[in-house]
Description:
Blueprint: H1 2-51, H2 55-70, H3 77-119, H4 136-189, H5 196-227, E1 236-239, H6 240-252, E2 258-260, E3 268-271, H7 273-291, E4 295-302, E5 305-311, H8 344-354, E6 358-363, E7 368-375
Parallel strand pairs: 2-4
Antiparallel strand pairs: 1-3, 4-5, 5-7, 6-7
Amino acid sequence: MKSKIIQITIIFSCLIIGITVIATLLTRSAESADSRSEQIVDANEISQLIEMGETAKAQQKISELQQNLRAPFTTNTTSKTAIIICILSVLCICTVFIYVYTRILRPFDKMKDFASEISKGNFDVPLKYERTNYFGAFTWAFDSMRKEIKSARMAEHEAIENNKTVIATLSHDIKTPIASIRAYAEGLEANMDSSPERRTRYLQVLMKKCDEVTALTNDLLLHSLSEMGRIEIKTEEFELVPFMEQTIEDITADKKDVIFTKPDFSPVVTADKKRMTQLVENLINNSRKYGKTDINISMTKADNCVQITFADKGSGIPDEDMPFITDKFYRGKNSGSENGSGLGLYIVKYITEQTGGTLELQNTYPGLKVTVSLPQKN
């Protein structure tokens, strides 16, 4: 585009110069014709003076005519004006070109180079915002686009690394219960379960380790689904108290470490039963794993919602871990050698929020209290 504007500038300059030259030549030609006409008139006047016998006047007229012929040639005022106009016109065209180049072409070239760098994947090249040119708003928009693309690329890279981390973590965590399952299975194969008590213990350990593998694979599935935003929440209305009683019974089996205090009211909520089961199971398993005490579950009413509280008397969550404990893959400093992927509380928070509720964690010294608030149907 710059070369085209230069060509146009040169063409217009040449046209102006050519028109000026032609106009000057025509003016001079006209002036020469006028001068010859005047000389013919003067010659006729001299002839008439001689015929009339006025020799002195004729001689004076001849002297004036000779002086005019000897006078040096001077440029006509009209020619000078044409030349000045020509010069000013060319300067004006050059000034317009310089303005167009500095205010339009040069910023446009910068944006073109910037776009070329972006297409190559170079997102570290800033585009300076200039208020004085006509592309100021566009340069700001382009630079904002660069920042957004760079941020998206970084988030994508971080997500890929997180996926690698969770796969590596879960792979490592699954190895431990699998190794135990194999060891006890080999013991059964070798008839090491010589007494009914030992056989029962072997079977209990095998079932426990199978449950751990199931929980880890469920974590992996939920993680992959949440990454794709595909965790489906199919809500329905149901009474919360009977649901909690049945769910806790299914999870605890014959264990007596979970105590559910039945409330004197029966709230109706709109939620996904399957996801709520996962939520309750995650919270109970977390308390069993880290609290290692009895778990008390209770319900209370609040403003337009019902609160489900899970409380234990364990060591709680360190204060420095509390702001991050519901983040994906985060494991507190008190996790020790316990198996886990750092997805349990993240899944609980995700399901709670998708249901329209809130999650609150609070250290009670000793112990941890987890409160899930769900909207209650009026």
